[in-house]
Specification:
Layout lengths: L2 H20 L11 H34 L8 H20 L2 E2 L5 E2 L7 H27 L3 H33 L2 H28 L4 H24 L5 H22 L1
Antiparallel strand pairs: 1-2
Helix pairs in contact: 1-4, 1-5, 1-6, 2-5, 2-7, 2-8, 3-7, 4-5, 4-6, 4-7, 5-6, 5-8
């Protein structure tokens, strides 16, 4: 498989994960049980944490050190960009009206339908994930080993997109009263990922000196999503062991993917 083919496959997989998860709406009569929801969201959080560390933060530090511009302070771009990534999500939370699966609403007060707010909440999650994959492929710079590592990140994102797609589509079915509408909204929320991935890819390939910043930015945005949304929505206080084991298994799966393919 060529580098171009691996890149296209990676961009496709992150979209396919959400789509397949959304398709579960046709096979599930009721909403996901609290225990299963906790396990799935914990798993998604674990994948995102591991991806942030292994596939984004560590490469960001390595690239920053290799560039040599910061000397012993080579960690500064990674630290600053990581914080900025979190602040970027704070900004989106403030300007985009959305509703979490838990029912909590954020952003400007509007008369937007509940289904659209749920859709926007998941779309916000997917933007940093798509950027992360795009930045990783762009930073590979045509290197086969690095491209394989980026493909591992894309596979990990696809794994965690599957339960995320299922977790949001079932509430969407209740909000819209239609399985077809719920599936289409769930799929559309995943379509933003390959779009963000393409943007991230071109930014990373054109602005080579900023690659460490881009990688850490994506990591900060994803960790923010985990802490702000996935863990609270998983309701770990009700089923702490399930959520914790889900998170640990997700972390291990992503770590293995990075080690094997990286």
């Amino acid at each position: 498989m060529t580098i171009t083919e691996m890149t296209v496959l990676g961009f496709f997989l992150i979209f396919a994960g959400t789509t397949l998860g959304s398709a579960l709406v046709y096979f599930t009569k009721n909403k996901i049980s609290p225990k299963v929801n906790t396990l799935l969201l914990g798993f998604a959080g674990g994948v995102m944490i591991a991806a942030s560390v292994w596939s984004l933060i560590i490469p960001s530090l390595n690239q920053s050190e290799a560039q040599g511009g910061w000397g012993k302070w080579f960690f500064v771009p990674t630290v600053v960009a990581f914080i900025v990534g979190g602040l970027f999500l704070v900004l989106l939370d403030k300007v985009v009206p959305h509703m979490h699966v838990s029912g909590e609403e954020e952003g400007p007060s509007t008369s937007t339908h509940k289904s659209i707010k749920l859709f926007l909440a998941v779309t916000l999650h997917n933007v940093p994930e798509g950027l992360a994959v795009g930045f990783a492929f762009g930073a590979a710079q045509g290197n086969t080993a690095a491209t394989l590592a980026a493909l591992g990140l894309a596979i990990g994102m696809a794994f965690q997109n599957f339960p995320e797609g299922a977790a949001v589509t079932l509430p969407l079915k209740q909000a819209t009263g239609s399985k077809n509408k719920a599936f289409l909204l769930g799929t559309a929320s995943g379509a933003v990922e390959p779009i963000a991935a393409v943007i991230g890819y071109f930014l990373s390939t054109v602005l080579l000196s900023l690659q460490p910043w881009f990688l850490a930015f994506a990591a900060g945005a994803m960790i923010f999503v985990v802490a702000e949304d996935l863990i609270p929505d998983a309701k770990l206080d009700g089923h702490s062991h399930l959520g914790t084991w889900g998170l640990m298994i997700g972390f291990v799966v992503m770590m293995i993917l990075d080690v094997v393919l990286g």
